[in-house]
Amino acid sequence: MTPWIPETVAVYQMVGLFGVALHVGAYAALQLGAVRGNGYTYPTVIIAAACCMLLSLWRDFNLASAVIQCFFITISLLGLTRRFILDRRVRFSADEKALLASKFADLPRHAARRLFDAGHWIDVEPGSVLATEDQPVANLLYLKQGRADVISGGKRIGECLPGTFIGEVTALTGTPATATVVAATAATVFAIDADRLRRLTGRDRELRNVVGQAFAADMRAKLHLSNRAQAARPSPE
Question: In which domain, by residue range, is 29 found?
Answer without folding.
Answer: 6-89
